[in-house]
């Protein structure tokens, strides 16, 4: 711990303890928006199968070659393969002992655990270096919440631990400790995402894992390859706790608290959650997940009527009948299920038709700033972009931006922090679509907005931002050329 404190002190940080949250990371210097607070390589990480094949080292998806011996990991280059070799040499021998079917069906959690043990072995035998921020003691210090887990989950962790044992074949392995480590993974591992926040893999970053959660955080966690980088999204004075969000922040307090309790086993008492039950919290939740007024011109939010006949608009007093609401909600559910089945079968046109029906029903059902409607439109945007239907995709992209802006600024304390990557990325998507459609003027506006936000969350000197700035420069040059041509 002393060594860790020394190592992070130079970055303006210290580890402290809080009676309610356990360890926490506190600033000892001022951080401005965009400043890197901390960065870390994973102790163990693997790509997830759902994102397609990816390099085990850097998560790239191009020019991949499989390990010819065990046929499990992919590498994008001999450089990445060499960097992974000390670890993979052990992993490779162990994996070869399994049947081909079993090898191919290993879950990311099992693979991360196997890698964690091999890494510990390599560090113990001094084959790879141990540092103050890269050592197994930091894994040991992670919370596991074993005493809060139900019996069924514990049985599952023991079964997973037995599979790890089968792969490692170590005579003295402590199965109980492996099961406990699965519990640690559940509340400490991070989903590794690309710059556009698409999930690529999973990794354990024991120093980053000291950072606690807030539903209105002052920092954001992003990834560059598999390097975890935490940046400030607002000014953080000396002596402040560094906080990130573990979950999607756009949800009612009940939804957020349920997600945090289920996955991370704690009751959140952050600045947003302590408002639970207050009028402002009830209103925010009713806007995010509740119903719309039956008067088209009214933008009021609805609360359950005390007689349970339906929901009453808090602005104009109209009652929306429970039966009508239940009927539409049921219809939405049925069509959504069919649409997602069509999507899974790659029947994209059929899926689009159905999602548009869902959108229409939701427009009639939910408040205009509802996150349910937002997610349906984002889904349509994704499928339409995949089909290269730029025009319609742009229409949906533009419909989502005002909702993000409202989520940032207008609902009380803000559902998202002022600087949030999702709004930046939405501007980025909008700008790219406008560029494809030859709308240079709007491309410049959208990409400028994107750069303003993403250079803070993603770092001004990353290749993602450099490419984005280059695209903006190109659009500006084209606009200037068009202007001179018109003259
Ligand atoms: C990734 S760890 C964070 C570091 C942790 N405090 C520690 O001592 O190692 C996640 C765990 O920290 C605690 N935690 C994080 N954010 C919290 C919060 N806002 N309120 C209460 N507990 C919190 C919970 O026990 C949660 O399962």
Structure description:
- Helix 13 packs antiparallel against helix 14, helix 14 runs antiparallel to helix 15 and helix 15 packs antiparallel against helix 16.
- The protein has a 3-stranded antiparallel β-sheet, with no helix packed on it. Strands 4-8-7 form a 3-stranded antiparallel β-sheet, with helices on one face. A 3-stranded antiparallel β-sheet has the order 13-14-15.
- It is globular, with a radius of gyration of 25 Å.
- The longest helix is centred in the C-terminal third of the chain and has 24 residues.
- Strand 13 and strand 14 form a beta hairpin.
- It has 487 residues and is an alpha+beta fold.
- It has a domain of 150 residues.
- The mean pLDDT is 94.
- The protein is built from 16 helices and 15 strands.
- S-adenosylmethionine (SAM) binds next to strand 2, helix 7 and strand 9.
- This is Histone-lysine N-methyltransferase ASHR1.
- Keywords: Metal-binding, Zinc, Zinc-finger.
- One of its GO terms (molecular function) is zinc ion binding.
- Pfam families: SET, zf-MYND.
- One of its GO terms (cellular component) is nucleus.
Itemize the secondary structure elements and their pairings.
Elements: H1 2-9, E1 13-18, E2 22-27, E3 36-40, E4 44-47, E5 65-66, E6 74-75, H2 78-96, H3 100-104, H4 108-124, H5 136-140, H6 151-168, H7 175-188, E7 190-193, E8 199-204, E9 212-213, E10 219-224, E11 227-232, E12 243-244, H8 253-264, H9 279-289, E13 302-304, E14 310-313, E15 319-321, H10 322-344, H11 348-365, H12 371-386, H13 390-409, H14 421-436, H15 440-457, H16 463-486
Parallel strand pairs: 9-12
Antiparallel strand pairs: 1-2, 3-11, 4-8, 5-6, 7-8, 10-11, 13-14, 14-15
Bound molecules: S-adenosylmethionine.
S-adenosylmethionine (SAM) is lined by residues 20-24, 142-143, 145, 187-188, 209-210, 212-214, 264-266, 268-270.
Domain MYND-type: 55-92
Pfam families: SET, zf-MYND
GO cellular component, one term: nucleus
């Amino acid at each position: 711990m002393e060594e860790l404190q020394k190592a992070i002190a130079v970055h303006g940080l210290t580890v402290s303890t809080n009676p309610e949250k356990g360890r926490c990371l506190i600033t000892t210097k001022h951080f401005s928006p965009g400043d890197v607070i901390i960065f870390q390589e994973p102790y163990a990480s693997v790509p997830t199968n759902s994102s397609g094949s990816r390099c085990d080292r850097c998560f790239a998806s191009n020019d991949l070659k499989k390990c010819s011996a065990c046929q499990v990991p992919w590498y994008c280059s001999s450089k990445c393969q060499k960097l992974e070799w000390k670890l993979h040499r052990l992993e490779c021998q162990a994996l070869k002992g399994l049947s081909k079917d079993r090898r191919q069906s290993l879950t990311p959690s099992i693979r991360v655990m196997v890698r964690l043990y091999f890494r510990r072995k390599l560090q113990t035998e001094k084959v790879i270096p141990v540092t103050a921020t890269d050592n197994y003691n930091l894994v040991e210090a992670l919370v596991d919440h074993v005493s809060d887990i139900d019996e069924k989950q514990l049985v599952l962790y023991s079964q997973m631990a037995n599979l790890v044992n089968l792969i490692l074949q170590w005579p003295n392995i402590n199965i109980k400790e492996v099961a406990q480590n699965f519990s640690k993974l559940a509340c400490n591992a991070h989903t590794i995402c690309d710059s556009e926040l698409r999930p690529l893999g999973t990794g354990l970053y024991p120093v980053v894992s000291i950072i606690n959660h807030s539903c209105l955080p002052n920092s954001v966690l992003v990834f560059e390859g598999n390097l975890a980088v935490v940046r400030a999204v607002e000014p953080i004075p000396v002596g402040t706790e560094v906080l990130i969000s573990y979950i999607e922040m756009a949800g009612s307090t009940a939804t957020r608290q349920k997600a945090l309790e289920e996955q991370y086993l704690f009751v959140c008492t952050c600045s947003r959650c302590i408002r639970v039950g207050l009028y402002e919290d009830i209103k925010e939740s009713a806007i995010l997940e509740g119903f719309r007024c039956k008067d088209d011109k009214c933008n009021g939010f609805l609360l359950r009527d005390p007689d349970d006949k339906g929901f009453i608009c808090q602005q104009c007093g109209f009652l929306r009948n429970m039966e009508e609401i239940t009927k539409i909600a049921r219809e939405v559910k049925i069509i959504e299920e069919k649409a997602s089945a069509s999507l899974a079968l790659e029947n994209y046109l059929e899926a689009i038709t159905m999602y548009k029906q869902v959108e229409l029903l939701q427009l009639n059902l939910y408040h205009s700033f509802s996150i349910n409607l937002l997610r349906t439109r984002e889904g349509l945007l994704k499928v339409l972009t995949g089909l290269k239907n730029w025009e319609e995709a742009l229409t949906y992209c533009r419909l989502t931006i005002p909702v993000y802006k409202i989520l940032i600024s207008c609902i009380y304390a803000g559902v998202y922090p002022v600087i949030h990557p999702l709004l930046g990325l939405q501007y980025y998507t909008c700008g790219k679509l406008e560029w494809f459609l030859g709308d240079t003027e709007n491309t410049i506006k959208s990409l400028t907005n994107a750069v303003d936000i993403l250079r803070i969350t993603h770092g001004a000197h990353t290749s993602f931002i450099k490419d984005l700035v280059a695209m903006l420069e190109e659009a500006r040059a084209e606009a200037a050329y068009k202007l001179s041509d018109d003259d």
